[in-house]
Design a protein that fits this description.
single chain, disordered N terminus, mainly alpha
Length: about 400
Amino acid sequence: MTVAPEQRPAPVTGIARAQVPALIVGIIGVAVAGFGFVTNAPEFYRAWLPAYLFWFLIAAGSIAVMCLQYITGGEWGVLIRRPLGAASRTIPLFILFAIPLVLGLEHIYVWADKAVVAHDVLLQKKQLYLNATGWIIRGLVFFALWTLWVWRIRVLSLDFAKTRSPFTDLSRRRWSASGLLMIVLTLSLASVDWVMSLEPKWYSTMFGISFTVESGLSAFAFVTLFLVLLSSTPAMRDILKPSHFRDLGNLMLAFTMLWAYTNFSQFLLIWYGNIKEETPYYLKRMHGVWGWMATALILFHFFLPFFLLLMRPIKDHPKTIGVVTVIILFMRFVDVYWLVGPAHYATIPPTFWITIFAFLGIGGLWLAAFIWQLKGQTIIPIHETWVEEAIREGALTRNA
């Protein structure tokens, strides 16, 4: 038994109008950031990294959350499955966005600067792993694995939409289960290459899992904000319920707590150990502008979202939870810059404007690709059996 045509949700078409403005913002942002390359190439390369990481974490986190949703099922993910899939399929785009990082490797990572390595015995001993060729090869392997899993899950989903075969659904769940393990492992390794190796004499066994948690939080905040923006459209007005936002709010609360737990545990272990190779990492981030940013992260990345997301009325209403997602996403950028910036600067540099325009450039192009992947589709995957039953019963077509 299938859903009657009059019961089926209409495709969300309004988002297509945002594609061209996003593309224009992206082109302008990249062009203005490119002016920074002309005037000061080393600063351009360093400024590109935090902007790249912010948007990458949303796309990579979407793969992880999508896999989690296919494994667990449930109404909490019914309205974010399509946006998660669209965001996941943009992951190959970040190979192109990484070109400036490859070109400026020796300006971003001290281990890639041969002049510095020649006078540092410790860096010489780490060259077996920390070298340009290995960095590039590992990155390509990561992207190949992410793209493979996203493609395979997409193929199985399209096949299931046609056949409704339980064997196809089982295969999709198995790929999702292995994909979740794969994304956790590869993101942990990527965090070492792309972020932790900025300060190659420092290391933390907690950093990889913290990076993975950050990707999940970024993805949840983004797709929740996306639903908030759609909540007033004709296609979604009678579908979105307070319980949908409440579930997503609870998940953002959980990931906010995980973010605080992993970061505090890392800080506590380093503070207690008091090892000279580890403590400089936090010492430089506890003074000056970086210290103020650390305080802001404690207050506005953890405490404020934590207390707001404890309140059911805030989670139930699109506008209020939308404000929370904006706070989280803004603080995610602050967090990324706080992780990357002190590796190169004692304070925020005058060339910070390059990072802002790189953020707008990458973000605009990425959002245009995201909308292209999503436009013309219904947000609800109506081919799923349990979704069809929910639609017939009215569970997904009334506000309750």
